[in-house]
Amino acid sequence: MAELKERIIQSSLDLFEKHGYHGVSINQIVEHCGASKGGFYHYFHSKDELLYVIHDTFITYVLDKANQAKETYQTPTEQLQAIVHSFVRVFDLYKAHIYVFYQESTYLKPHYEELIKKKRDQFKQNIFEVIQKGQEAGEFRNELPTEIAGMALLGMVNWTYKWYRREGEKPIEDIASIYVDIILHAFLTSEEMNKDTNQEYFLKKAFLFEND
What we know:
Structural class: mainly alpha
CATH superfamily of the largest domain: Tetracycline Repressor, domain 2
CATH architecture of the largest domain: Orthogonal Bundle
Distance between the termini: 23 Å
Low-confidence stretches: 202-212
Order of helices and strands: HHHHHHHHHHHH
């Protein structure tokens, strides 16, 4: 039955992309995926809840990855590498979800909007905390205001949805490594940049969480 849920979500993504949230009915969704209304309502109370699940899927992914990075890696530099890498990958893994999010997020009901906002804020705070810990540990430059640096990182990576194409010249793994390279060059102190471990890192691709 979980397969049916995924089919419903995928059909709604296809239809929302083409016709917009209000241009698509539940009847059209179930017809598109070969389901019944009973099947739809088994998983979703309403079309509003379906829209929330679409939004929640990729936001939960990046939040879980950020928490995992903080638990798995010891240094703030390693943690930030992992967080940025998984953050960039989400634009390939959940490309349609993100497109619908930016196109249709204004239609989220207040209750669902608050749930999404809570997770987005948690992810943002994870970024801020890792940057701050990196500054306290002497890995990241102290002259960078923590929140401004964090918001710059978020803004740069979020913009990926505007230009990323799966058929483009570089795969998402390479793009993620480029982002990590740019961000660490901006954040790391000169002492950290000159360490052998970081020099080695910049000479190879970072494939953190590549099998997820």
